Description:
By secondary structure, this protein is of the alpha+beta class. It has helices at residues 28-39, 79-90, 107-114, 137-150, 198-202, 226-231, 264-288, 370-376, 379-396, 408-417, 424-427; strands spanning 15-24, 44-47, 64-65, 94-95, 133-135, 154-156, 160-167, 170-178, 181-192, 207-209, 218-221, 237-238, 245-247, 296-300, 310-312, 330-336, 339-347, 359-361.
Amino acid sequence: MAAETLREPPRETPVLKRTEVLVVGGGSAGVSAAVAAARAGAEVTLVERYGSLGGLATGGLIALLLSLDDGLGRQVIGGLCQELVERIVRRGGAFHPPRGEWGADDPELVARYFRWGLVWGGARAQHRVRYSVAYDPEVMRWVLAELVQEAGVDLLFHMWGAQAVVEGDRTRGAIFESKAGRQAILADVVIDATGDLDIAASAGCGFELERIHPWLWFRMGGVSDVDAALERGETFFRTPNPGVVLAPWGSATRLGQSIDPTDPRDLTFAELECRRIVMEEVTRLRQSVPEMADAHLCNIATQLGITESRRLVGRHVLQREEMDRDFDDAICVTGHWTKYGAVYAIPYRCLQAREQVNLLVAGRLISVNHRVHHATKEIPACMAVGQAAGLAAAMALEHAGEVARVDPASLRERLVSAGALLDYFEAT
Ligand SMILES: Cc1cc2nc3c(=O)[nH]c(=O)nc-3n(C[C@H](O)[C@H](O)[C@H](O)COP(=O)(O)OP(=O)(O)OC[C@H]3O[C@@H](n4cnc5c(N)ncnc54)[C@H](O)[C@@H]3O)c2cc1C
């Protein structure tokens, strides 16, 4: 606790609304959770602190879905993530290798997709073509909003989830700060999809906090010849937009210190310093890559690239030794973006807090250890987990909101009906 404190007078907080399922955070996980819960018939409210959806997948300019496969050519993530890909493709805003090429180890094909940022991993790996997707973040933003609106979710922007409302082992809802002041939203089931576990942490749930080196991605347009520029070996990628490249720039080697992603002073330092270094990098690229001499900065991510912050310590903490292992309550299977043939099944228990009976989490904050997080933080995995959390929340309404009373077998069955791919271990 801070050395000096202030005792606030007791106050009456207006209740803005009551809802069956409250999802806090409109990133890839939160949107999936909200849409899945609404499609399952629940009355859903989704609250996001900014003015658009997608979180890191849009505001962070992380415009690559890595990956929907197991690295050997087999698709492992379907459901809402697959639906999202199809919708973005229909709008001309995404690019991915065709199914027939997934898993191919032809060096020319692999080199082609490296240039799109669709193949990653160590220099010594036997690389293969992945089912990964490069997309335009503006189209993604729009499609996410479409999905939410079509599902009948009550969406509220510009409200910041400040504090869980807790009564014993129940999270009754959350208090939000906005230009309208302080307001509460009460719910039967709450899903924390804030990326940073803001709601569950304030409800007293156990967590681990990582210090990290933040990143700040940016895009440059007006590149006269993208192919020739890529040949020069700089670290940027082709995008679906002609003449535009994505610079997945990170400050790990140059920022000089890691930060606590939940500390505003550290975040302010990182925002200013990363932006300064990006501007320097833009100047350097213009000077050293002839095809970029007249290029311009399209945009810098509006959100710092925070890979990790708080992670729930939930009913199960998934370990690296549990790679390639199935669970009776597995709600999705995800591959690993730098590994081939390595998958994690994610148990439903990794979404459940130990302390609160009607609280679920979804996204990069789920209950896994630091090493497993490298795989489970990726956008397709966040979406698959979000879809499961949303459906489970809707099912929990029949059990007084108690998420542990949802039958995992029924949850899995309904996920499969909604397009999730859960037969990986049966078929291998
Ligand atoms: C540098 C970097 C590179 C990456 N590269 C890739 C990649 O190439 N491919 C890939 O698939 N994944 C990649 N990832 C991982 C991936 O982008 C994220 O882990 C994923 O997008 C997280 O989704 P999320 O919904 O869990 O969280 P977020 O995207 O962080 O969404 C959380 C949402 O909640 C909102 N929010 C937060 N707090 C509150 C609050 N208190 N009240 C209300 N709203 C709140 C935020 O504004 C945001 O919209 C990368 C991540 C980083 C940082």
